[in-house]
Amino acid sequence: MNRPSLLPFACALGAGLFASASGAQPLPPSAPVPSPAVVAARETTAASPTGFSFGSYGRVGVASDLRGRTGRSTNIVAFGPRLQAPPYAELQFNYDARFGSARWRAVTTLAMNEDLFHFTGRFGGAFAVRNLYLEETGIGSDDLTLWVGSRMYRGDDVYLLNFWPMDNLNMVGGGARYHAGEHVVLQAAVGMNRLDDPYQLQTISVAPREGFGPQTAFLLDRPRVLASAKATWYSVGRTAREGLKLSVYGEYHAMAAGVRQLNDAGSRVELPSDSGWVMGAQAGLYRGPSFVNVFVRYAQGLGAYGDLDVPVTLASARTSARALDFRLALSANWERGPFALMVGAYFRYFRDADAGVFSRDALVEGAVAARPIVWFGNHVGFAGEVSYQRVTYNAIDPVTGNGALAGSVLRFAAMPFVTPGGRGSYTRPHLQIIYAASLRDDGARRLYAPDDPFGFNSVEHFLGVGTEWWFNSSYL
Q1: pLDDT grade for 135, boundaries at 50, 70 and 90
Q2: End-to-end CA distance of the chain
Q3: pLDDT per residue over 420-444, tens digit each?
Q4: Is 350 in contact with 366 (CB distance < 8 Å)?
Q5: Alpha-carbon distance 249 to 231, whole Å?
Q6: What's the angle, vertex CA 165, arms to CA 429 and CA 296, rounded to 5?
């Protein structure tokens, strides 16, 4: 289980687009992972109640750009500040039961995106099953938990930047968690996913051997096999309110060989087997609600793209072996009396599998955000935020023809809020008003299409209202 580090925090969303210059989109944030002490208490008492329970994460908001359009995110990096994230919600349904010493829980989590009827006037929207699994504890040992199903499988996050820098998998499979005493937690999982993309799945219409009408054949069907392992050591014990935690982490990705059809004329190409890996480490220091986490992660091959993305370009051998992704990240929170300070930062170097020298698929990017908070009493507060983000592509700027294609955004924001949850950087629910001013350089504005009005202004405004909540959500 994880430390207080993760977890979502205040952001007043905007209805609009989440722009990512590199094409890699972070997953929507979910409910926070609790602190070690809370986790231990939950583990010892979770089996006592039985029956159904309900949990949820959600955020809803709307904003204007003060020029007659809706407010949009000004992020230009893959993991930009979450200040202007769009509406999103999860509904989690649990059923708990026990048989003697064995305890089990069935978890179903449904998620919805920003297509709100009252904003679009359309009956519709995208829904996803983010969790559908069963886990049990107490068969053979109270220290061993097993699970099987479909789930989000995550570690600690950088809340202000809305991403999980080390471990963040989506798979259908199974796993185990073992408490080796009070100081060590071991986790392992194996599963697969198969994206609806012609790199992994392709169906074609073929003439039947008998009868009339075309039949569908699975020409390409190569799921990605995912395996992960993680070990975490707590200096004082996983239930202590203060201490040091160290984690090491690894992933392995693999795909079988296959054949892909390129066009309607029937031209086909062989795709060789492909693989990749990830290695990461985390160091965390925590005392009560205050903490600092540092992450380092290196990925090669398929692992460089993450589990929900596929290579856009390949090497001459038609594999992703040359691709790499290197990340450094920081997440911190400090609280004392009516004051708090949250910080998030990351640096990333990404290179795709193509050996070409100049490409927009090779980049260096990063972001840093700081959010000071002050409470007036227990239920009213004010948060400010300043952030900076920059991306540089390994490609010539097509407009100037001079230097690399690059851009940066400096953002200032003010957020008064009220909350019945009381003081705390991660207490919810929140009702918020948010104003943000984003200062974009010429390079950042050139990252948008020539006719997109969103790229015209060097200063972009965002004024809106929003709410965010979470309760009773379960994560490793």
Answers
A1: very high
A2: 5
A3: 989 999 999 999 999 999 999 999 9
A4: no
A5: 7
A6: 140
List, for residues 49-105, the tens digit of each pLDDT value.
789 999 999 999 999 999 999 999 999 999 999 999 999 999 999 999 998 889 999
pTM: 0.86
Tokens of 157: 């996050």
3-state secondary structure 337-388: CCEEEEEEEEEEEEECCCCCCCEEEEEEEEEEEEEEEEEECCCEEEEEEEEE
Q: Which residues contact 367 (CB under 8 A, 6 or more apart)?
A: 77, 79, 80, 81, 161, 344, 345, 346, 387, 388, 389, 390
What are the structural domains of the chain? 36-63+88-360 (2.40.160)
Other Cβ atoms closer than 10 A to 1: 22
